[in-house]
Amino acid sequence: MGLTPLVVVFARATGAVPPLTPDGDEAREWAEQELSDPVYDIAEPTPFDRIARAVGDFFQSLFSPEISPGWGSAIALVAAIVVVVIIVAAFLVWGMPRSTRRAAGASPLLFGESEHRSAAQLRSAASAHARAAEWEAAIVLRFRAVARGCLERGVVDPPPGTTVHAFARAAGRVFPALAGQLERSADAFDDVRYLRRPGTQELYRLVADTDDAVTTAHPAEASGIEPVMAP
User: Fold this and answer.
1) How far apart are CA 12 and CA 208, in angstroms?
2) Nearest to 174 by CA among 151, 147, 156
3) For residue range 164-195, what is the model confidence (pLDDT) as tens digits?
4) Alpha carbon of 228 to those of 59, 68, 189: distances in Å?
5) Where do the H-state alpha helices sit in the chain?
């Protein structure tokens, strides 16, 4: 705002009738009085405005063609550090990305029933039932250990709802030498679980031997997880 408009404003505020022709000192005094009005404080930038302008100037300087080669590497390093800090902050806020591989974690369902235990835990539970001569439970748990062990090794993928025979066929393609043994173990599972036939020590030994053989066998198809096809 120039000096003349300030004089006019001051004249209007004081009731003086323009035109006024103050001398230099009087005009300066009028201008200082006018500028002391609080309304002019609104035009002053706030601390937030100053910070935002500084950040904007910094990023604008990163793309400025006038940066000397000596400062270019330093600015690039600062920019890289800023990016790393942002990435780390994102991990702290949202966490690590979830893995999409099914083999990395146990499915909550196994042969249509909720099952969160590992293969080792299932084998331990089956052994406890076998010691108590509870053959039906021992056979069911030991065959589930076979399926869970294959999933943990990443060689067979039994999705929820898979039948024992569908799993046995998929596992038989991975372990061809054990295909017949896997089918007989699946029969033992069906007999005691669904047909309500009594379990025996011999049937449990069949399933346990199958589990031990699968655990130590090398898969014939090591290119990936064998999917279980619908029965």
Assistant:
1) 105
2) 156
3) 999 999 999 999 999 999 999 999 999 999 99
4) 54, 62, 18
5) 3-14, 24-35, 47-62, 69-94, 119-131, 135-153, 164-174, 179-193, 201-216
Does the pLDDT of residue 102 top 70, yes or no? no
Give the DSSP H or E segment for 113: strand 113-114
> 215 vs 75, 137, 219, CA distance in Å?
56, 21, 10
Bridging pattern class, strands 113-114 and 226-227:
unpaired
CA distance 170 to 183: 10
Q: What is the secondary structure of 136-168 as a DSSP string?
A: HHHHHHHHHHHHHHHHHHTSEE--TT--HHHHH
Cβ pair 208, 122 in contact under 8 A: no
Cβ atoms < 10 Å from Cβ of 222:
9
SS3 of 227, please?
A: strand
pTM for the model stands at 0.53
Pick from 111, 144, 136: which is nearest to 214 by CA?
Answer: 144
> Could you tell me how far CA 111 lies from the centroid of its own chain?
28
Show the tokens assigned to 219. Answer: 């898969």
Q: Tokens 């898969």 correspond to what residue? A: 219
Could you state, in order of their start, the residue ranges of all structural domains in the chain?
3-43, 47-94, 103-227
